[in-house]
Amino acid sequence: MPRCAAIDDPAGGEAILLLGGPTAAGKGAVSRALADLVDAELVLCDSAKVYRDLGVGANKPTPEQRRRHRYHLLDVCGPEERFSAGEYARLAGRALAEIRRRGRLPVVVGGTLLFAAALFDGLCPAPPTDPTVAKELERLSEAELRGELQRVDPAAAARITPHDRQRLVRALAVWRQSGRSLSDWRAATPVPDHGTPVARFALLRPRAELYERINERTRRMFAGGLLEETAALLERGLTPDSPALGVIGYAQAATHLLGRLDYEEAVELTARATRRLAKRQLSWLRSDDRFHRLTAATGETPAALARRLLAGLSS
């Protein structure tokens, strides 16, 4: 299979490519098109796809796609197990090393940006958020949160997008709990060394188009087996508190099957939760200027996007 000179590390060896972006942007299709163009293996960066026994609701590769391309970090834990960002970084780091030893291009693809940060930036050793502190901070207005953060951690205040309450609360909770700014904690984080540069791309779409893709995918999931998959998990003894049943779609399907939501409510709540996830992902991407934007034009094919991404690597 042909190689693209742009993906080679000038210092020798192969670069690593990270393809992130909001849910439903089409990252999987573009990554498969990339693998068709260059000698690549795909390392999934997705907190749903790690679970065995999740299928249609996790939008996993089809059997034919698995035969055509080599995937990593797919089906690595049971639906009753908790899977952490640290565990992801350990397993994905091992996969990257193996792929590079084979002389192939590692393409890390997915929207779980916490996993990507753990893999490439390291895990910040700041203390976890105390729920009591978080509850106190949630009572504050957005302006009050930002004002306090500008006083105690101006670097974080500049980095966090204006309406991202979740990250504002997190940064202030770290300060209140430890007396040390989140920026200081981050500066002390050991950065993993994968031995080669990482090229980061964010696949984006106009918001109206992205939301319609989310809505359509949600309807397709519910009509295409999500309820049956969820019923099978419940019959095995999993509960709504089980990790896999916390995944968007499965959570709402389980609530419906337990008689607490009607079908249309479950579909709408799933679409709404997915749109909110997309907004958080977009906020994260906007705050990280290391990502090169790859905005899909209306009707642009995955193959065309993959070729444009490769052209961007050489520019």
β-strand amount: 5-15%
- What integer is the average pLDDT? 92
Order of helices and strands: EHEHEHEHHHHHHEHHHHEH
Give the biggest beta sheet. Answer: 6 strands, parallel
Quantity of strands, as a count: 6
Helix content: 40-55%
Q: How many H/I helices?
A: 14
What is the terminal-to-terminal distance? 22 Å
Poorly predicted regions = 1-6, 9-13
Spatial strand arrangement across the major sheet: 3-2-4-1-5-6
Task: Describe the protein in words.
By secondary structure, the protein is of the alpha/beta class. The protein contains 14 helices and six strands. A six-stranded parallel beta sheet has the order 3-2-4-1-5-6, with helices on both faces. The protein starts with 15 loop residues before the first strand and ends with a helix. The model is unreliable at 1-6 and 9-13 (pLDDT under 50).
